[in-house]
Amino acid sequence: MGLSAAILKTINSPYYGLSRMISDIQQAVMLLGTRSVANLVATHEIRHAMNQKSCISHERFWDEATDVAKTMVYIGKKTDQKVQFEELYAVGLFHDCGIPAMANRFDDYKSLLIEANEKHDATISELEEERYNTNHAVVGYFIANSWDLPRGLCELILRHHEEDALDQSSDEAFVTMYSILKMAENIVERTRRFHSNSEWLWVKDGVLEALGLTSLDYSDLEDDVSEFVLV
């Protein structure tokens, strides 16, 4: 029932712009396509599998991940990027899926998140490596891979905190999705907490260039997302 509800909610969302409501699950599956439905199944099951005792609020985590996902779709539409909206949504939702997994495993993980928010001379991945000998990007990669999520999505999860990811990749789809993700993360951070994401400072120029945008274009997008998406 939960999965069917997710499928109907997705097909009837403004992103698809259908002229009428779809209430038949079989019709919804046909309209979405196998790839989109597979991503929805993975979304539903991964969230369910992680719904256990943890040192962080899973509800708050997934709410913010959903904000990033919606923002990515909005940016993709507004900038007319050649990527599928359901893939953008999946990237936004899953890019940090290693965090709740690590919070389930390590009782002191919440203190690391607090430290990462307060310190600006070390990334969260560096702090995780120092304390746990792994990081949430690696954990998230294995989770996504085990659920047979698209290869490109798995690679993006693995590399989304790499400072030189744009310079090291010649794959157009990767560059586009990485750039939209970093922009969406920063917009959500500024909208929710009124300051920029620490990573935005060193990826901003590359992201804007990859998406063909100016600083003014970015400001307009941020205003639009704050008014129409994150409400």
Labels describing this entry:
about 230 residues, about 70% helix, mainly alpha, 14 helices
What share of the residues lie within helices?
A: over 70%
Return residue spans where pLDDT drops below 50 for at least 5 consecutive residues: none
Main sheet makeup: none
Instruction: Give the overall pLDDT as a whole number.
Output: 87
Structural class: mainly alpha
Broad shape:
globular
The string of secondary-structure elements, in order, is: HHHHHHHHHHHHHH
Strand content: under 5%
**End-to-end separation:** 27 Å
**Integer-rounded radius of gyration:** 17 Å
Number of strands: 0
Count helical runs.
Answer: 14
Describe the structure.
- The mean pLDDT is 87.
- The protein has helices at 2-11, 25-32, 34-49, 58-78, 85-94, 98-105, 109-118, 124-132, 136-146, 151-159, 165-168, 172-193, 200-211, 215-229.
- The radius of gyration is 17 Å and the shape is globular.
- The longest helix is centred in the C-terminal third of the chain and has 22 residues, at 172-193.
- By secondary structure, the protein is an all-alpha fold.
- Helices cover 71% and strands 0% of the residues.
